[in-house]
Each structure stands twice: as C-alpha cells, then as structure tokens.
Amino acid sequence: MPRKYFGTDGVRGTANSGGMTADMVLKIGMAAGNLYKRGNHRHRVVIGKDTRLSGYMIEQALTAGLLAAGMDVFLFGPVPTPAVAMLTRSMRADLGVMISASHNPFQDNGIKIFGPDGYKLSDEQEQQIERLLDEPASLEFAAPDEIGRAKRIEDAQARYIEFAKRTFPKELNLDGLRVVIDTAHGAAYRVAATALWELGAETIQIGHEPNGLNINEKCGSTAPEAMCEKVRELRANIGIALDGDADRVIIADERGQVIDGDQLMALIASSWNKRGELRGGGIVSTVMSNLGLERFLAEKKLTLARTKVGDRYVVEHMRAHGYNVGGEQSGHIILSDFSTTGDGLLAAFQVLAEVVRSGRPVSETCNLFTPVPQILKNVKFKSGKPLEDVHVKSAVADAAAQLGNSGRLVIRPSGTEPVIRVMAEGDDERLVRRIVDDLCGVIAKAAA
Question: Which helix (H) or strand (E) holds 78?
Fold first, then answer.
C-alpha cells in the first residue's frame, strides 16, 4: 500500500509548506503519541534535531502535539540521528524522534521516528500513523491533568560521545593520526571532533559553524571536495565527512581521494570476518551497491544480500537473517553490534581501528576492490508514472538484455525527491554510459 506522508526515511519536505507546516507537524506528534501511548505509566518521548533554522519551529510544534497526547517530552537539541536511536533505548522512552532532512539543503526538513527498541518504524507502523492523520476525529486528547511535561536534557551530547568512544577497541588509540573532520554544519558539529580528540587524534574541523542556513552547503558527505582539499593541504592521514544528521560517512585517504560506503563495508566485513566477529555469512546492502563489492565478498566466500533503497530496509533484513554489518554505498553503515541505525562516526571508528592495526596508509587499507563502472543519473518528473509507459518498459527490457550477466540495471523513483533514478553498471563503461543516456532520454520523453 503506497504511503501518503512517509517516504523511504520518514516524513520530509520543504519547511513551512506541505507536510512540514507547524500544523501538520503538530498532528504528526498527536498521531504518534496516540499510537505509542500504551498502559498507565508516564509515557516519554525523546527528541533530537540537526541545525536547520526550521528545527526550532518543528521542535515546538511536534512537542505540542506529543504533550497534547499525554506524553512527556525530553529535548536534546542538536545531536546525531544515531544518538536519538541510542538514547531512546537508554532512557527507556516509548518513542524517539529526530528532526532532520539528512543530506538535503537547509530549506527542507523532516521527521524520523524510532520505536521503543531504537529501530525506525516499519511500513505498517507508518501506515498506522497515516491513518490517524487522515482521520483527525479519531485522535484522542489527554485529559487536562494528564497533559505531558517538557524538559531539556543538557547532557545528551556527552552521553553520546561516551557511547561512541566505547565502540572503539580498548587496546587501540588514535595517537599520531591527523584527522580532518567535516560535520556539514550539522548535528555532529560538537560531538564528532570531541570524540576523535579524546581518543587521541589531532583533529582539524571544517563544516562546524552552523548558522541555520548552511547545513550540507558545499560540505559534508554529499560534497566532500572541501574535506579532500583540506586533507591535501594539511597532509592529514585521513578525512571524515558526515552528513547533516551524521548517520552516513564518506572517507578521504591521505591523498584526498574519496572512499565510498561500498569500500568501507568491504573493509569492515573482511576485518570482522578475520576475527570471527562477522555474523550472517556476509553483509546486507541495497540494489545500488557496486557489483565489484559483490565479487570481492564472493572471493572470500561471503554473501551480499541486497534490499531496496533505504537504510531501514537494510536493517530489517539484517534483523531477520542475523547479519551484523550492512549499509549503503552512500555511506550509511549499520553495525548492529553497536547501533540500531546508520552511524557515520561509529563506522569511521571501525575504519580508523583497522588503519591503526595495519600500520598502512588509508589508501592501501581501504581500497580493497576495483569498482565496476557505474553510472547514475536522475530524470525529473512532475506527476504521473513514467516507468509504466510502454516505450519505457520496452527500452528497459532492451537495456537489460544488452548488459546480460556482465552488469546490472536499476531504475526506481526516489523516495525523497520527484526524480527517477537510472543506474547501470558493467565491465564495458562505454556500453553502460550509452544505456543510461538512452534510458534517461526515453523516460524524460514519457515524463514530459
């Protein structure tokens, strides 16, 4: 059943319009509070946010809705998304909420909801909230003496820093490593550099001066050029770029060359497998991960289980089949021994641990396989379902036949933007590029 408000990662949209108005956010708070108010105990919700200007408005509206539903609210201020997931469990909350649009620009914002177990809500749970939103008369208001209370938690960042540091191997430290850390002017602008420094690293911060409008602007994991340049300029050992809510990470080696999530998963999986810590016989990723990763794992007799795009689908598969490493090419890395969701800082710690163990440069430690040529392009559309067009279907079938067993083709609508994503990969780069260009043309014509 298609969802009306929720996408692949919560509710997201332009702030102060559509699903991101104060009125709509208040109703989301009411609906979520109604759904998770169970039993006679004092119910509690924890709320974190990134650094967007609209976060102030959304935080207040969401709090009002939850209080009206009779839930106590604990406000963290700016913290990473994985901190909210962790603290939901640690503080025995009935619900956790992160206000963020992740890697999107400042004008967007969103709401990610975690259940009491610290995991993102399932499709079914999100549909239950949507039904309540579409039937406002069914929402129950708390009695006057049962309205919730709100409280600000001042040490949320410190709690997360200590949690993150405990995931780094006790016998190791980062002494002597020069680390560039880019926090995208986002949620981790205080915690990431502090945690790295306390583990022994010499840290150089960029993207750490949020003003409400500059989150993800020419910085962070989706724009790592500034990090790469700073690594080269200061001859750092490694660069770490997080996105706006710090649930994804991209690494730069000592030469300022980008290392994506596929390589990071390969490194963590092979490292954990050597020490007998890898569970599930492989890792979980999405249909977007490179074929080179799949081949690398196969050489080590490990599997790559693929899911549809969205880190929560990766998590669901990991939980159902006993894996403890999963993630996305974009840098969402889920290490379920430590966390219930993607955590860019924790993934970076595992990479750093392997760099320290090996004694080799990051460029040698982290580049474990040669990626198969992969081309990804987006086609904008305003409405309709262009992928159901007969000409598009015929072109897709022809492209798949051309690639055969030496490549892959993935075509899907984005869950967060009005675009169709067209990805192809294979050993013949010229063929792959031509296939993507031709398909984009056919889809654009159908979407016109």
Answer: strand 72-78
Residues 150 and 165 in one domain: no
Domain that holds residue 193: 159-256
Strand-by-strand arrangement of the 419-426 sheet: 374-380, 419-426, 407-413
| Percent of the chain predicted with pLDDT > 90 | 88
pLDDT at 2: 58
For residues 104 and 232, give the distance between their C-alpha atoms in angstroms, rounded to a whole number: 27
pLDDT value, residue 416: 66
Boundary-marking domain end, from 256, 283, 305: 256
Computed over every residue of the chain, the mean pLDDT equals: 95
Domain end position, chosen among 236, 256, 276? 256
Q: Is residue 260 scored above 60 in pLDDT? A: yes
| Active-site residue, 221 included | no
Q: Are residues 113 and 97 in the same domain?
A: yes
Q: Are residues 307 and 320 in the same domain?
A: yes
Q: For residues 337 and 201, what is the distance between their CA atoms, to the nearest angstrom?
A: 24
Whether residue 362 lies inside any domain: the answer is: no
| Cα(204)–Cα(177) distance, integer angstroms | 11
Q: What separation in angstroms does the CA of 171 have from each of 26, 194, 246, 348, 354?
A: 47, 20, 26, 17, 12
Residue 1 has pLDDT above 80, yes or no: no
Catalytic residue among 54, 100, 102, 221: 102
> Phi and psi dihedrals of 276, rounded to 5?
75, 20
124 shares a domain with 53:
yes
In this predicted model, what pLDDT tens digit does every residue of 13-38 receive, in sequence order? 999 998 899 999 999 999 999 999 88
Q: 130-134, 260-264, 413-417 — which is least confidently predicted?
A: 413-417
Beta strands in 108-255 (DSSP E): 108-114, 150-152, 178-182, 202-206, 238-242, 249-252
pTM of the prediction?
A: 0.92
Please check the confidence at residue 310 and state whether its pLDDT lies above 90: no
